[in-house]
């Protein structure tokens, strides 16, 4: 049993290294638009039962990028079924993950990933409708796209019901100072940080896309409702939370007003919204719709969401303060070390009063100051006595424990100007794409929201693993063998510590929107961004047609 335990630690270390290496290789292929090669590579990496959900999401997205929309939907439907069940809890699976590392547990996905499974499926159905010549088949595929839109709505409503809204956050900001102070002092588990600000509570862009798809299908009132939901979300806090331009709300209000015009709303209500919600530039854009009878819509899905990195945090005991102390270990190059330190300071460092006092008592003034670079877990005398009964305090005094947590390194999003050139009878457009969402920022903030849970789960996992290794060595009667086994166990457990860095990596980093009203006719659309040109080929726009170009820009 002793040999098996240590052997498993080493095998897990090798497995983690291979996973990281192969994921990077597949991603590099995707970033060069080698979609098929990337899919083949990721299929090999994500072959385990624990990665089933990731397998279907990654391959489904890559199949869409290859234009294989039917196969993409078959894969994403499998992902839908897995994500919708949330995987019935398997005790052995969870126990093994606790004893080894979290990647040995089933990947369950995030709220945002669940929403974008349906989002990509709806895009597939619209693309299949475009390929059909039969009106009945086109309608069938568009109806299927609307089914996915309604799934998005259900998922977002579930997420919204579980999290505070932007109105709740605004009310919290405006409450009396003493209530803010009480809330801050009482939130010790999150280190005094208001993690509610980082939660994925709704998705303005997904709501906007609901509106667009309803509009394409001729469901004008449903389109109005969805566009208006998106507009309210953008202006209430979504744009601010994810660092989006203020014009996002204006764009959604413009489309709300257009649906009101088509739906027969009173002119006075329409005029009031135009004056209160639209700038003069947007009012000019609205007027261009009145003189044209077709529209080109470009959705530029650009880049890739960032991948997570691992940060090593050292855990040691402070018996004088009856507490445990966590301190980051800088590894990798200068940028990596700097990013991990910044993340630790931003997310984990001691800022609440009890920890400041404990740091001061343990180390005087410098101890209080050094708390900005450490995280202290105060256990108190009763809990410390319980540690003593199982010899955990002895183990902590003899060795330093490694805890590994996930984090995101810094990233920048492409903000290069864009240009849509329609060709044919349409002059070059000066309308710039609007950055409507940042999935990269959503992913980062979801990680911020669960960071405290990650570090406490990692702490418990590593304490348990090290205690088991410690007990194995302590029960060996031969002193020399015990010391050797203890050393091997410490090295194996220290080296095999790992964090769950899995996420859906073939999702775009951001989505930019260009909408160009124009007369019906023949065109050859080209989209230019960052010295690259994408072409849609020759198309014909009919009267009252909305032509949707789902453009995947990996660069």
Topology at a glance:
Layout: H1 2-31, H2 35-45, H3 52-65, H4 69-85, H5 91-99, H6 111-131, H7 135-162, H8 166-173, H9 177-186, H10 204-216, H11 220-241, H12 247-262, H13 267-277, H14 280-290, E1 294-302, E2 309-318, E3 323-329, H15 334-347, H16 353-370, E4 375-378, H17 380-389, H18 392-398, E5 401-407, E6 418-421, E7 434-438, H19 439-449, H20 451-474, H21 479-496, E8 510-518, E9 521-523, E10 526-529, E11 532-535, E12 539-541, E13 546-553
Parallel strand pairs: 1-13
Antiparallel strand pairs: 1-8, 2-3, 2-5, 3-4, 6-10, 7-8, 9-12, 10-11
Label this structure with key terms.
555 residues, alpha+beta, four-stranded mixed β-sheet
User: How do the strands line up in the largest sheet?
Assistant: 7-8-1-13
Question: Structural class, from secondary structure content?
Answer: alpha+beta
Q: What proportion of the residues is helical, as a percent range?
A: 55-70%
Overall spatial form: elongated
**Share in β-strands:** 5-15%
Task: Describe the sheet with the most strands.
Answer: 4 strands, mixed
Total number of strands: 13
Poorly predicted spans: 175-190
Protein name: Tetratricopeptide repeat protein
